[in-house]
Every structure is written in C-alpha cells, then in structure tokens.
Specification:
The protein is an alpha/beta fold. It has one domain (6-18, 28-285): Rossmann fold. Helices cover 43% and strands 12% of the residues. It contains twelve helices and seven strands. The protein has helices spanning 9-16, 42-46, 52-60, 76-94, 106-117, 138-144, 148-164, 173-178, 182-192, 221-231, 240-243, 272-285; strands at 6-7, 33-36, 65-66, 99-104, 124-130, 200-207, 247-253. The protein has a seven-stranded parallel beta sheet with strand order 1-7-6-5-4-2-3, sandwiched between helices. Strand 4, helix 5 (106-117) and strand 5 form a beta-alpha-beta unit. Helix 3 packs across helix 12 and helix 4 (76-94) crosses helix 5 (106-117). 51% of the residues are buried.
Length: 288
C-alpha cells in the first residue's frame, strides 16, 4: 500500500489550489524554470520533446519555463556538456542570471553534476528532482546482466537513435547504464559530486504497480517486480528510497513514463501538467 508520504494527483491539486479551470491562475514564480529530462526518446517522437508539454502548460500559468533536449542515451559527462550549452542559451534568451532546475530521472544526476562540478551553483537557486536514482537502480544492473546478444541489440539500437535524434547527438548506452548502477552511484558518483551549500535540493519519489494502488504500464511490469524485491516500491525504473535526496517533498502515484505525460491509455488519475504546476507553486510560495 502507498506510504504516508504519498501525494495523489487529487491531493496535489487540492493542497495547492490547482483544480482545473477555464482560466488557469497565474503562478508567481520569479525565477525561470528549466525542465531537464532523463533517458529515452518516446516523448520526442510524439511531441516537441521530453517535458515540452509540461513546459507549455507552465507558460500558460505565467511561468517562464523551458524544456531543452539533450542526448537521450549518453553518459552524465556527455549530457552535461550539452546541458551547459542549453542553459547558457536560456540565460541569454530569457535575459536572466538565475535559474531553478526541475529534473526528471537521470536529469537529476546531470543537474547535480552541473551544480557541483561545472560551476552552475552560481546561477542555480534550487534543484528539484523527480524519480532520480540518487542511489542507482537495480534495473540498470538487470539490463547489463542480459545475454550478450540481447545486450548488444539494445545498445546498438539505442546508440543509433541517440546519435541521430539530435543534431549534436551522442550515445553510449552501455557506459550510461553502468553509471546508473547502485554500485557506481553509491561508491563513485555521490562521493565525487557533493551537494553545493548555496543551492536548495528538493526531491520527489514516485511509485506504481507492486505494493501500491497505482497502475503501471505493461512495459514496466517485470522491472517493477524485480526492483520491488530489491529496493521496495518503485515506478518501474527508480525506487522511492533511491529518489530521496535533500528535502523530501513526498511520493507521487505515477509510473516512470506517466511522470512525463506518457502512457495515455493507462487508467490513472495522475496529471503531469498539474504535478509540475504544483511544484512551480511550491517554489513560488518559497520565494523563488
């Protein structure tokens, strides 16, 4: 069953006053928000990219929100070089010196690296992570442990997509998955990428499927069960315990794809637009 920290979509809307209305109220966030995506290309085929729809919804609420895209199957170092370029463009185009980063999944690791290792603590006021594997994910280990034929097929397909979907695309799925494993994150990444004292760190965990009342997309059913047996409740890719970082804001009932507005046929009341709007409202309430 869901734990006491679980925030359902209806609860989020009730608590934050985000009930749907013909004329959405303005959310008075002062600082522009950059939405940072994680792995995968599914959203890129359906719309303007990962979190593009959510960024447009935030703009309809008066929030200066931007959702750039970087290589979907590359390492943190490769992706952060692209994020660095994207964020500098945002500063110039939005004419701002300050940013808030709201990052989904691997995007949260990218953001932590940008802040700690690339000097972005000077421009970033806060980082909000959603289902980020701050302690790794056993699902990455599961994929890497597959027979070589299967592993090669997956990596070849992902690497081809990753190098072709963006003009400056790159890909290295096998190394990226290695950097996703609990061993690497706990023993290497977290020790080398400490939080910066000048930046606020918030996090949300997400859950669906086994041990919860939330539905999960069929594509995640096996990984959901596998991860539940090793790390507890999860969203099919990242466990709730791994997502805890900084000031924990609560657990949301949504699988990993639902968090970015996918799985449209799933019988779920979760609304990704309302969820990201609730985050923006909390940021505004805290003075960002």
């Amino acid at each position: 069953m869901p734990d006491d920290d679980t925030l359902s979509a209806s609860a989020l809307r009730r608590i934050t006053g985000l009930e749907p209305s013909p004329q959405p109220s303005i959310i008075p966030v002062r600082t522009p928000i950059v939405l940072m995506h994680g792995f995968g290309v599914g959203a890129s085929f359906r719309r303007g990219g990962h979190l593009h729809q959510e960024a447009l919804h935030l703009r309809s609420r008066g929030v200066r929100a931007i959702a750039p895209n970087v290589s979907p199957y590359s390492t943190v170092c490769a992706r952060t070089a692209q994020w660095d370029d994207r964020l500098r463009r945002v500063l110039e185009e939005v004419q701002t010196q300050r940013l808030v980063l709201v990052a989904h999944s691997m995007g949260g690791l990218d953001a932590r690296y940008l802040i700690s290792e690339m000097g972005w603590h000077e421009q970033v006021d806060a980082l909000v992570t959603i289902a980020t594997p701050h302690r790794g994910s056993a699902v990455a280990s599961l994929v890497l442990d597959q027979p070589e034929l299967v592993r090669n097929w997956l990596t070849d397909a992902a690497d081809w997509l990753g190098t072709h979907i963006l003009e400056d695309g790159s890909a290295d799925l096998r190394q990226a998955l290695t950097e996703f494993t609990p061993e690497y994150i706990k023993n290497t990444f977290n020790s080398e990428v400490p939080d910066h004292p000048d930046v606020a760190y918030w996090s949300y965990g997400c859950q669906a499927g086994k041990g919860t009342d939330a539905p999960i997309a069929p594509i995640f059913r096996y990984s959901n069960q596998y991860l539940f047996e090793r790390e507890g409740t999860n969203d099919g890719i990242v466990s709730v315990q791994s997502a805890h970082w900084g000031e924990y804001q609560g657990t949301v009932d949504a699988d990993h794809s639902r968090q970015v507005g996918l799985s449209p046929g799933l019988a779920s009341h979760f609304d990704s637009n309302a969820f990201y709007a609730s985050i923006a409202k909390k940021l505004a309430d805290d003075g960002y």
